[in-house]
Amino acid sequence: xxxxxxxxxxxxxxxxxxxxxxxxxxxxxxxxxxxxxxxxxxxxxxxxxxxxxxxxxxxxxxxxxxxxxxxxxxxxxxxxxxxxxxxxxxxxxxxxxxxxxxxxxxxxxxxxxxxxxxxxxxxxxxxxxxxxxxxxxxxxxxxxxxxxxxxxxxxxxxxxxxxxxxxxxxxxxxx
Length: 175
What we know:
With 175 residues, the chain is α/β, with parallel strands linked by helices.
């Protein structure tokens, strides 16, 4: 999977992997090429055990964090996005960062971020893309991807199909 580093991770994507105890997939595939805005970490703190799993990835050096300096272009963009009432603080932080830095957006919230990424010529990848690539590079098996997917669905993660195999069929992908 070709991404422009860093991969800037939103709350919903991080949560998808953390809920099923598979943040290791992110760490293995993108180690040292991921950043998490501080606003995303604040959102993750609402569910302490999810926050702790992601914080471990940060403390182990797999993910970096970014904090906006007051008055910086990123901070200004962030406040404009939040004030619009359209975006949550985590999404807004990721998009504000990407407006002023190279990188790829990691989010499942396509309704909110897809157009923004297109307008700012930033690539967007989802949980689906990551699981697919993890299978393609044989980091996980297709059966494992199905099991992970089902766990995400049980944790009320919104995915485009009820199973990984269903997603592959929907997209016409043969593994």
